[in-house]
Specification:
This is NAD(P)-dependent oxidoreductase. Keywords: Oxidoreductase. Pfam families: NAD_binding_2, RedAm-like_C. There is one protein chain. The protein is of the alpha/beta class and about 290 residues long. It has helices spanning about 10-25, 40-45, 50-55, 70-75, 95-110, 140-145, 145-150, 165-190, 195-225, 235-250, 255-270, 280-285, and strands at about 5-10, 30, 45-50, 60-65, 85-90, 110-120, 130-135, 155. It has an 8-stranded mixed beta sheet with strand order 3-2-1-4-5-6-7-8, with helices on both faces. α1 links the parallel β1 and β2. It starts with a strand and ends in a 7-residue tail after the last helix. The protein binds NADPH dihydro-nicotinamide-adenine-dinucleotide phosphate.
Length: about 290
């Protein structure tokens, strides 16, 4: 016994994680359903465990990265003993509720958990470009911070085990929001023969300007106070209608702008025409502070 860290799950991501902790000089135990995938790591000095339970008990902290929570449940189904205060850092992607459920199970098995979301590809693991969001046991995060830092830019979000998974999907929402909005602009400009590359510096300028509004708008949402210093929802709705009309006239798909319009229309129907744009939060999360 006696390695610093165990890595369970040696797929593309798990192998990158195990590589990073080996490179950082840690003594490493690994386990994978298909043992052959451990060969390269074993040749670099990792120890191969013959069961998940013995792998977890070999180190104070285990990093788990398998396909999904169903795989994780299967892998841990054979664990029958007490995990004796070990820390599980679960980097398997999943839903917030799955993370909370795993934390409850681990608690009963005598383990503490950190649940994480990796916002990076395997090749960046071990560098500052690999964003790793973690939530759950703050004590576990503090104790194992140097180890977690060897994986990438590891950030602790709070003690709700579901938070990392929630930040993960919220981040994806921002990503697809930006990508689809940019594509709408590319489509509009293409009708006048303008290349995506020619349009993109302007698109980036608008995106940057818009991002600059977010801290002030976040403050409005948090205070539940939507005084329009810039433009009312009614003014925005007029602009959105214009975007829909021009898209339609040019034969460009108008589904996305129409969706913007329908959210604004619901806010107006609810009596929020003269509030600032972030009052739309009430349409997305009823019962939030705009009501
Ligand atoms: P892979 O498909 O490469 O690896 C999957 C791993 O899960 C393998 O180790 C596999 O074992 C194991 N596994 C699957 N089912 C079971 C099971 N029933 N019991 C035991 N082990 C099982 O996936 P990745 O490594 O790419 O992804 C792993 C996790 O990391 C996912 O949750 C993914 O969303 C997340 N992630 C991946 C990123 C990426 O770019 N790859 C980016 C961000 C997050 P075996 O070798 O035996 O098949």
């Amino acid at each position: 016994t006696g390695t610093d860290v165990t890595v369970i799950g040696l797929g593309l991501m798990g192998r990158a994680l195990a590589d990073a902790v080996l490179t950082a000089g840690h003594r490493v135990t690994v386990w994978n359903r298909t043992a052959a995938k451990a060969e390269g790591l074993v040749s670099r000095g990792a120890r191969l465990a013959d069961s998940v339970e013995s792998a977890v008990l070999a180190s104070p902290v285990s990093i788990v990265c398998v396909s999904d929570y169903a795989s994780l449940q299967q892998a841990f189904a054979s664990v029958s003993g007490d995990l004796d205060g070990r820390v599980l850092v679960n980097l398997t992607s999943g839903d917030p509720e799955q993370a909370r459920e795993l934390a409850r199970w681990a608690d009963q098995a005598g383990a503490h958990t950190l649940d994480g979301a990796i916002m990076a590809v395997p090749s960046t693991i071990g560098t500052a470009d690999a964003i790793i969001l973690l939530s759950g046991s703050g004590t576990a995060f503090e104790t194992h911070q140097p180890l977690l830092a060897a994986l990438g830019d590891a950030t602790f979000l709070g003690d709700d085990h579901g938070l990392a998974a929630l930040y993960d999907v919220a981040g994806l929402s921002v990503m697809w929001g930006v990508l689809n909005a940019w594509l709408q602009g590319v489509a509009l400009l293409s009708t006048a023969g303008v290349d995506a590359s020619a349009f993109t510096p302007f698109a980036a300028q608008v995106a940057q300007e818009t991002v600059g509004w977010l801290p002030g708008y976040a403050d409005q949402v948090d205070r539940g106070s939507f005084t329009p210093d810039d433009a009312t929802i009614a003014t925005h709705a007029g602009g959105i209608a214009h975007l829909v009309r021009v898209s339609e006239e040019l034969g460009v798909d108008a589904e996305l702008p129409r969706l913007f319009g329908s959210v604004a229309a619901r806010a107006i129907a609810a009596g929020h025409a003269d509030r600032s744009y972030p009052a739309l939060i009430e349409q997305l999360a009823p019962g939030s502070r705009a009501s």
